[in-house]
Each structure stands twice: as structure tokens, then as C-alpha cells.
């Protein structure tokens, strides 16, 4: 693992445990207030996203759950921040140009290297405020109720998520739950709401994810 990634992960996880508040290194977590750790999230501006192809709807209430996805992209061994940005572009292009959606369907994406990118425009600002959220396009019947978080990679055929991705997913989910008052048990997979294999092995790991998110919030 690249030294920057290793340092970022150590500081992020220390912040999640309430042991450190790091601000100088990209990708690290920092304490926002008691009980909440704010992970470093690259905004749509940071990764130079395309403009939305229409208006982004902002819902004037808080989401009640999180839905986890995977993007069925290549299981790359490139764990760099640049790859996370390239992946964010790939997802946005797919959703705009093939699906004809207004913007990226997911609110946030977690790369295989553990970098977090904002998906749909406005998601990060809304999350920081903790009072409203943008309407997504990630799960039929849940887009006006749930935050959609997508993990880079394909996990259908026994592939295991990298530690960096898993650990940062836990921190992100814990932060989303804190900001929006979502119970740690309210974490689901895409296949809970439709006929799909998404999010692959991540669905089997949901009980562990709920437990680790609860532990991160209690630390």
C-alpha cells in the first residue's frame, strides 16, 4: 500500500475510535462534534464532475436508512485518489449518458483504496447540514428515503472488498447515521428492495457492517 494511503487509513480509523482528530492529510477523519467523526469526502468540484443534466431535488427532511451498492466496475489494484476520481467519472458518465439520469444516482462512492467521493451534486452539503438530503436514483422505491452509498468494484463471484474500502465504508456510514439520526441497524443492501444481485458479498456482510457502525458511533 502506498505510504500516503496507509497513513490516511491509520488516522481515519483513529479518528473513528475517538483517539485522534487529523486535519492535515487528505482522506483523514476529523472530529466535528461529540460522537461524530467527519471523514474526508472529495466533493463533485474536487473531482471535476460534469454539471447535472437538470435540476437536483432537495428533500426537506432527513433520510431514514442507508442502502449499500456496488458499482460492478473492475476490481482494480490501483488504490490511488486519482483512481477514485476516475471511477467517479465512470459512474457519472454511465448514469448520465446511458441511463439518462439527471446526475450520478448514488449520494456517495467509496473506492477500493478507501477514498470517498460525493456522487450526486449537493449530497455533501446536505449531509454536513444534517437536515435535508437530495433525491437520489439508486434504489427503486427508496430514493426519497435512503442515502445510497456505492462501493467501487464487483463482488458477485466471491470477491472480497479490500480492507481500505471496508474500513472507510464503516466510518462513512457511522458519520451519515450520526448526522441524520439514522439507527445503526437501518443499513440495507440494494437486493433488499428488488430483484438484483447488488451489492454481492457486501449483502452477506451487512450484519457485520451494522455492528461495526454501532461500535464506531459508541467509541
Describe the structure.
The chain has 219 residues and is α/β, with parallel strands linked by helices. 34% of the residues lie in helices and 16% in strands. α1 runs parallel beside α4 (163-180). The protein starts with a helix and ends with a helix. Mean pLDDT is 88; it is low at 1-11 and 13-28. It comes from Streptomyces atrovirens. Keywords: Signal. InterPro entries: Amidase/PGRP_sf (IPR036505), Amidase_domain (IPR002502), PGRP (IPR015510), PGRP_domain_met/bac (IPR006619), TAT_signal (IPR006311).
Q: What is the topology, as strand order, of the major beta sheet?
A: 3-7-6-9-5-10
Radius of gyration: 16 Å
Kindly estimate the percentage of residues that lie in beta strands according to DSSP: 15-25%
Q: What is the structural class?
A: alpha/beta
Biggest sheet, open or closed, and with what strands and sense?
6 strands, mixed
Tally of alpha and pi helices: 6
Order of helices and strands: HEEEEEHEEHEEHEHH
Number of separate strands: 10
- Determine the fraction of residues in helical runs and give it as a percent range: 25-40%
Rounded mean pLDDT is 88
What is the overall silhouette? globular
| Low-pLDDT segments, ≥5 res | 1-11, 13-28
List the helices and strands and how they pair.
Blueprint: H1 3-16, E1 30-33, E2 36-38, E3 41-42, E4 58-59, E5 65-70, H2 81-98, E6 108-110, E7 116-118, H3 123-129, E8 133-134, E9 146-151, H4 163-180, E10 187-189, H5 201-204, H6 206-218
Helix pairs in contact: 1-4, 4-6
Domain Peptidoglycan recognition protein family: 39-194
Keywords: Signal
Organism: Streptomyces atrovirens
